[in-house]
Amino acid sequence: MMMKRDLLPARVAAVLGVLSIAAIASMPWWAERATLALAIEVLATLALAQMWNLLAGYGGLLSVGQQGFIGLGAYALVVFGLQAGLGAFWVIPIAGVVGALAGALVAPLVFRLSGAHFAIGTWVVAEVFRLVMANLPFVSGGSGTSVARTVMGMNAATRMGLTLWWALALGAGATLAVYLLLRSRWGLALMAVRDSERASRSLGVRVGRIKWAVWVAAAGVCAMTGALLFITKLRVAPDPAFSIDWTTTMFFIVVIGGIGTLEGPIIGTIAYFLLREWLADLGSIYLITLGLTTMVVMLFFERGLWGLWTRYVGWELFPVRRRLGPPVD
Fold first, then answer.
1. Residues 6+ apart with CB under 8 A from 37
2. Which one in 58, 91, 110, 295 has a CA-CA gap of 20 to 30 Å to 164?
3. pTM beyond 0.90
4. Strands, DSSP E only, in 90-136?
5. Which chain positions lie within coiled-coil regions (predicted)?
6. Alpha-carbon distance 54 to 68, whole Å?
7. Under 8 Å CB-to-CB from 68, ≥6 apart: which residues?
8. Residue 33: how many CB atoms within 10 A of its CB?
9. Alpha carbon of 259 to those of 16, 49, 83, 309: distances in Å?
10. In the chain, where are the structural domains located?
């Protein structure tokens, strides 16, 4: 028997994706500043959602502490940008290295836990990161500090353009990287680990190594995204940098979009920002609506909005599941 995928939807998605990337990349020459700022936030949020989906949806690692790595990325701006004198955009890849190293260092601790204990452990690690930064005088402690000096000498248009291109690289790059991973034998092993660690081990899958690699990669991308987001804010302080709101946003997006699918974070990100734009002026009603939406989706649409679509249409824009086809002579 031959393994095959339905390629037509994937080809359509590839064409639309290339056109969308080209249109977004050209935005600094035609879009208003407010539109650029929104596009940057959407793409950065998509990168975070894809990483949380990789952890929880494919790796079975339910983390509620990814804000810890976002905060470390933000503080990389303070250390390497403000104090070491590097330009803000040069700090972004360095922030990725910092986040990956931090993820590797805490992995032996959090991987001793599982299930709910793992989730709580990741949150505790993030809180430890926050408390450490809040009590370090050389990064201004709990009062926070401005990082505007890291973009001095750069006009606003250039800064917005570079920020958008970095956000596009992170958002589109995270989606493509996860797709390529899942199409590989490592992706098959990862999904096998998610479904059953015991069965995976019996088949020779190195469960610990795969989980470690996914954890470290997600930490690095979250740190890069954190550095990017705080370039737009130009001020870093412990509470906003390490806010659990970052992780709850990822959770909301992935759950309503469809956990364990590549399309889910994309649909969820669009839905999240549409709801925010429509309801943000309504105060507490906005938060209530987000909570009710999450509850309804979890209760009645276990696979999210994208799962509802595929149930009736059957298309996959990023086909990663193998299906048996007729034998080849």
1. 160, 232
2. 58
3. yes
4. none
5. none
6. 17
7. 102, 122, 125, 126, 127, 128, 129, 130, 242
8. 11
9. 23, 10, 40, 14
10. 2-325
